[in-house]
Structure formats: C-alpha cells, structure tokens
What does this fold into?
Amino acid sequence: MPFSRSVPPKKKTTTLVIFGSVLALLVVLAVVGIVGRQLQPAVRDINFTQLRDLAATGAARSVNVSGEVVTVTGTDGTLVRSVVTNAVAQHEVVAAFEKGHVPVEYETLQPGLLVTVLNYLLPAAALLIFALIGWRVYASMGGQNEPVASEANPAQTVTFADVAGVDEARSELSETIEFLRDPEKFGRLGGRSPRGILLSGPPGTGKTLLARAAACEAGVPFLSVSGSSFQEKFAGLGAARVRRLFARARKLAPCVIFIDEIDALGRKRGRGGDSASADQDQTLNQLLVEMDGFEQLSGVVVVASTNRPDILDSALTRPGRFDREITVNLADMRGREQILRVHARKLKLEDGLDLGWIARGTPGFSGADLANLLNEAAIVATRDGSEAVGRPHVEYARDKILMGVERHGFMMDEDERYATAVHEAGHVAVGLAVKHGDPIHKVSILPRGRALGVTQALPERDRLMRTREYLEDQIAMLLGGRAAEVLLLDTMTAGASNDIERAVEIARRMVAEFGMSPLGPIHLGKPEDPHSQTLLDRIEHATSDIINVQMKRACEVVDSRRAEIAHLVAGLMERDTLDADEIRESFGIASEPVAA
Ligand code: ADP
Ligand code: ZN
It folds into this structure.
C-alpha cells in the first residue's frame, strides 16, 4: 500500500544488545585466560620415564601433586611436569621422591578461580546462544519480529479531498471521525461508540484510502494490516499476532486499526478438519475476543475491508463487532470524473483534454484503474516528448489497460493477418447488427498480450441492469469471430477459444443464476453444496441450447454481410487498426456521434 512505512521493530534491537553483550563477555574471558596462562612460570612437560628417573635421583626441591598432575620443582628452581594417570604408578613415583626426602605436597582438587568461572559461564553462554539462535529461527518463521502493523507516515496525510466519488461512504464515516476526535465527549452525549466498520466493495474502489482519510481527518494513528498476514505457518501464531496488534492499538488509542482483505481470516468457521482452517478459526476467535474486550469508549475503531462480504463468518457482523457495513461501489460517470480530477492535479493536461470525456469512455473502471490510466498516459506523453498529456496518450493508455500492450516486433505472416482480420470482422459485423449490445469502438489486428486481434466494444453508459436481450447479443457477438472463420475461411482457429469460453460462461449464468431459460428460475446455491446430477445435466443442456441459437444467429449475420466484411478486412490489412468512424464507413452506416 502506498503511504505506508514500517516502524522499526523494537524487539530486534533488544536481541542485538543481548547478543552483543554475550559476545563481548566471551572475548574478555578468552583474553583473560590466555594472559593468565602467559603469566604463569614456564613449565616443561616430561614423560613418565623421565619423571621416574628424576624421582630415583631425588634431585628436586619439592613435589606437588594435583590430581593426575605431578609438578616437580628442581633444585635450580625450574619446573617440570608430568601427567600420571595411573594411580599406582603415581603412588610409586611419589614414594620414590619421599624416599629421597623431597617434600611432597598434595593439593586438594580445587580448580582455580578462572577455571570455576569458565566452567560455569561457558555452558551458560553456549545455552544462551543456542536459545537465541533457536528463538530467532522460530521468530523468522513465525513473523514474531515483523512489525504487527504498519503505521501511517504523518508526513503523507490523506484527506477526504483525495477520495472522490464515494460521498455516501464518506458521510457514513463522519460519525466515526467525530468519535475518534474525542471519545469521551462522544460518550457524554450518549452516542454508542462505533467499534467495527466493514467496508465492502470491489478492489480498487478506495476502501483503504477512505479508512486512511478517516484516521487522518480525526488526527489519530492508523494501524494497517492485511488479513492474509495472519495466515501463519505455525498454529497459534496468527492468534498471537492479533493479540499483539490490539495491545499496540490500546496503547496508541484513540486510533484506527485497518484490516485489509479480512476475508482471509474471517471466513466462516468450522469448514474443514484440516489444521490450516483450525488455525484460522483460532485466529478469528481471537479477533472476536479482542473486539468484545473493548471497553466502551476505549477509542479504538477497527475498519475492515473485503470484496467478499458473503463468505464472512456471521459472528463477525454481530452487534458490537463489525456491525456497520458500508458498501463502496464502482463510481458512476460523475464519480469517475471527480476521481480523475483528483489524480490529474499532479499532471499537466492539454487544453483540449476533457476529463468528462475520459470518464465517459471508462465504464467499469475502478478508482485504482483510473489512477493507473492517467499514470500510463503521463508516461506515454513523457516518452513522446510532449509538453502535456493529450487525447492520444489517454487513448493509448486505455487500450493498453483494456487489451494489453501491443506486441511490436511480433510479425504475423500475411495469411495469419488475413485470418485474424476476418475473425475480428465477424465480431464487428455481429456487433453492429445486434440492437442491445455495446457500441463497437475499435478493431485491431495488432497482437496485444495473448490475443492476435481485438474488437473493443464499450458501453455508452454505466450498465446497472443487464437484460436477457443484452446478454444474448453479447454471446452472439463473441461467437461472431468463429462464425466468420467457418463461413468465410472454411476453417476454425484456436484463437476463438477465449471467445467461446466467455460466451459459455454468460450462457451458463443466464441458466443457473438469472433464471433465463426454459428451466425457469432456478438457483444452484453454493458450489460446495451437493447438487443433483440430473439438475446439472439439464443446466448444461439449456446452456448449450442458448449457445447454439446465438451461433446460428451470428452465422446468419455474417452470411448476409459478406461484402461489408470484405471491405473491413481490406481496411484492416492496410491499416491494422480502425476506429468507430472507419468501421461505420466500411459498413455503409452514416456516422453518428459515438460515446467515446
Ligand atoms: P481498495 O482498498 O478498495 O482496494 P485502494 O484504497 O487501495 O482500494 O485504492 C488504490 C488506489 O486507487 C488509491 O491509492 C488511489 O490512488 C486510487 N483510488 C481508488 N479509489 C479512489 C477514489 N475514490 N478516489 C481517488 N482515488 C482512488
Ligand atoms: Zn475473437
């Protein structure tokens, strides 16, 4: 997410300090050990035979026995030492010395101070190091060291002026802001403190932006986490993360916790017996516990976003939890224009470039798509060396977003270009013939993305209701490419596979969801529910009936428009891409104002 900055994790520094101190201590001990040894008088080691000979001569001042070590001080003061492991042998040698009247001194087996310290410290240090390493490995796997949440950078504030086209959601959040500004005053006035707000809607519609703006407007910290970050490799860690998140929030209160994609952790519980879903259940339970544990007026508001409110556990939406749902929809044309205005503030636009024109030509675009569109357009304008962003740049950016990038340098041979042109012309012919479809905006045989050619139909307005006729026309148009291949090329290409897939998908939904078939209004329910095979068979039948009828219709259109199609194909072979006016000209249709 933009505007986010990781807070330096405190835990890491503590670990480093401990680690460093232990290391320093070990170095000091080693140095002391070495120096200590150097300070001792030089001792020469001798073997047992030499020791025995020495004992026999009796030429020594004194003998010191310390465990297995026999140290002899010679008459000249030099020291020799021998290790005698065999007790009997040692006894013999010592007896020999005693016979020669050399004083023998037995040392109690008490280690020196240094040895004592090392004896105790070394294992302790080793244990500590192992424990530290183990903990770090565990932590790195379990994300213990990661920040619980990223906090908004106060330098980059977002206000409601940056969020456009979502006025309803904005006004619904105003009470929350009021609460965050002064939780106590809010309580005195008898308001029920908001705890959880669920923002639902398609991706890129500005849900994160709204939550962030609410926190900024209230002037409180914004803690943001992603629901999927609670999915941990180890059981129980997700729940622990939830606990830490809320502990931190309580310290920062008043503040906003934002949980992006809450569906990742808030799915209905008790689905499967596997351990992953059991762990998810545990994480979700912890979240519920934390939310119930808020004292009234604790000043923490949890905002969660999802594009699948239907799969959330119902416990999440009970009173006292996420009991307020705000739907954030795709913006309509006016909303899109406002969003474009927000993002165009940073850009230099050509005088002739009307944001309303862009808004009209971008139905179904989310706020994120629109931001992306302007960004792409600005990039192209810069690459062109233009002073400002103009219409062609926007057109190019929109084509890129809708159809993928042109693959320059990817050469089709003439036969392939011709086949592609015929296929696309089939789409165009059917698209122009049907009454309820979206107007054809552009056709091109420049390869883009995975497609060899593209026919672009854009709705002239935001379509809220899709009728049976509209859906049938869409299917016919999708099948127009294949119809042209069969009738005009006498072959079939694999390039139609995506068209067919989309057509069948629409037809199946018409049957199984919209009740638009002879089977009547049927509903299949959730995919995981058991379905009767007979019903599934009947749905497949009704689906292919729809497909076959529309395929026949597409073929009829293509058959009746052979001349126009040939004209269009010639134009495509010559110019690669034709716009709405050129298409109409090929088909002998008078030019009329087109939407975009
Ligand atoms: P969501 O959380 O709904 O998936 P985001 O809030 O993350 O969407 O939006 C992503 C980006 O798209 C934003 O940073 C912003 O640039 C742009 N955007 C989305 N919706 C809007 C809007 N309503 N107004 C202005 N910009 C928007
Ligand atoms: Zn096609």
Notes: The chain has five domains: 9-37+113-143, 41-106, 148-327, 333-403, 414-586.
